Amino acid sequence: MLMITSLTIGNFRGIPKLKLTNLGQINVVVGRNNAGKSSVIEALAVSIAGVNGENDLLQEVLTKILTWRGWFGKNSITSLFYHDQLVADINFVAGNTLFSFEIRKHGNIMDLLDGEFKLDEDTLRRIGLGKFAVIPITVKAGPLKKTYLVLINAEFPEDGELLTIFSTSDNVYPIEMPLRFLTPFDITSHGFIEKVHSWAFKEKRLKSAFSLIKEGYPEFQNLSPLPENNTSVMYVDVQWAKKAVPYYTMGDGFKTLAAMALTVSSLKNGYLLIDSAEAFHHPKSLRVVAKTLLKGAKENNVQVFLTTHSLELIDILLEEGLKENIDGRIIYMKREGGKVEASIETFEESQELRETLGLDLRG
């Protein structure tokens, strides 16, 4: 994994301008509502996905960004840009390479269509009728460049994909940047646990994931998808039940922990981004999830970025992170007079900042 050491965001979502430097392996983004925490996670997600050069991954991430806070047609597309700005740019440094990511709200689309991209007549007609919003995305890494053309259904699609993405054939950079981008909706949605179970199975990491789950829930024994009604349904084997029980009947704390353990165990040399990491947890569950994240990240060489409003989770991450000698950061974000600002402290330096957070997040 190439550690991301700095991040610069301009005119993306609610952030007019922000620069973060000296990032660590575990980065905890905190602050009041509307401080820009989720925008930081989303900016990283969309740019890492773009660098990977996989249309499917970028499509998944962009769809999540557009719909996670609610899909409301053309306004959702406009919300990718700060106020009336026409260009959003995201830059990050990983290793010794600067990766640049640019999204344009408007541009000479016909030049792109006549040059790099060849679309069928029906698609061109629908663009002309305003059925699709078209956003060009450019990713650069050193002398290399890749261009995406994102067609977004500007209405309220009842069927089919929200996004269609075309791209030039060249890769941005000859490396892989494995990415997992999670929201509370993902973790509790139907089918997600089956997906992350398959990730861990393919990487031969189920044993590692199960050991993490057992640390929080000693009664847990096994997790397995079983055929049922022409599909696969996840079942949980626990000591107190006479037979395996459906995963979806378990409590939200267990479900979130299981999904997190499988995700972090299946991801090696990559990036785990989590929005609202404290969702669905009681205090005991928070500690288990924090330890799972820290241990999994350390074992698998994963860089983590997460947002939280929970002082309890912050305290646990600081306590357990210092025990594990984790290179961690607390990123405290504030919005003042339209500007977004951030202070960054190492876990060792965060005690004084923690007192400020207590007053701010509880205020």
Automatic annotation (TrEMBL):
It comes from the Archaea. Residues 3-46, 208-314 form the Endonuclease GajA/Old nuclease/RecF-like AAA domain. Pfam families: AAA_15. This is ATP/GTP-binding protein. It comes from Thermococcus waiotapuensis.
